[in-house]
Write the structure tokens for this entry.
Amino acid sequence: MATLLGTIVNCLRYDRLSPTDREAVRVDRLRSMIRHARTASPVYRARYADLPPDSPLSALPPVTKAKLMADFDDWLTDRTVTSSGLQGYLADPDNIGRKFANRYLVFTTSGSTGTPLVALYDRSANAVLSGLNTARGIPSRDDLAALVRRGGTSVGVFAEGFYLGYASVRARQLAMPWKRDKFRVLSALRPVPELVAELNRAKPALLGGYATILELLAEEQLAGRLELAPSLLMAGGEHLTAAGRELLEAAFGCRAYTSYACTEAGPIASECAHRRLHVNDDWVVVEPVDDDYRPVPPGTTSAKILVTNLFNRSQPFIRYEVTDRVTVHDEPCPCGRLSPWLEVEGRTDDVTTFTDSGGRAVRIAPLPIYAVLKEVPGVARFQALVGRGNTVELRLVCTAAESEAEVASRATARLKAFLATHDVLDPAITVSPREPVRTSGGKLRHVLSVAEAEVSSP
């Protein structure tokens, strides 16, 4: 079983190993995970039944989120956990950050492909998550020392729910209540002026959150309404563009870091001092592939990637499809790290602009709007197209068991209620019969500004 300290030590040791010894670590962990999945997971046992035990990773069939969630009860290696048993747990917001069955932290994904996922992390898997972030999350020793001198106080701004960012902080608060003031989390659904007021009181040494949220806060900092002097910034959950990083560092006067992570595999890649995202290849395997799952060479942008998690033995992810377009590079990095580095294609959802009751422009990041609509009962997939004059076109796909009219009414009411908290009153929300539009890579764009995005009819 992995521990936090053991993971940190292993990460630092791995970074000093020779290429041959690094390969041995990866192969040993991969073979162990595949053997375990074949033995303990009925889903993988069935999928690999006709394959030799020593089959290479490339010979194993890829898996998708929709397929695994459909076979959830046969996927887990802990045969006591069932989807029906998790339903009541996930229905109670008070369980965010609390362990299910006194053993697992439970996270849900954003459902960017239209199918949210439920992920379980036991103590060992959580130790690897924390250890990776501790060992490789902050590449600059000076920035780390500055954070320690400031007492390590951090505030994260994330969508409230069982999402990895929010639930992880909540779990730390529950585990160490005496340190609640050291690491706080604010709901990204709150109006920006409220976030500004809270942050001005907290004055964190580390400010983290979604890239678009941090960029909105940077605008508040430049306008003089937000008055922070953090030691560093951590942007996650969305792609941080070069322009976004420049804005953040100019506004807050410190370095802005990012990582590439997903709920299914944790920190896939961590940033080095030269701002390249190096794959954490001792704990995760990344295969860039085309639409037909054929590997693409280094330097070529993939259609998607296949991810293999080497540390979550309760819920194996082996050649798991992630619909992110990345470019993996194998040329040396000036930082000296031997792990390959990658570039991730930019964000897909838009920051939108509304007008409040006083005629002032209100900019809202995409994640809060997504979080509101995702929780509407009966909504399987959705898309919100925001236009001028506070107009919103909702494109909804409902679950078979729900009345489309009732779902549309609920979605409209909840979005209006959310916008009202931002003093956006009486928005013109219409429900369209059109299907949500996906990107060429299969991503479902949830929130679009129609003045900026190209949206085609199905």
In short: The radius of gyration is 22 Å. Residues 4-127+263-344 form a domain with the Rossmann fold fold (CATH 3.40.50.12780). The longest strand covers residues 379-387. Confidence is low (pLDDT under 50) at residues 452-458.
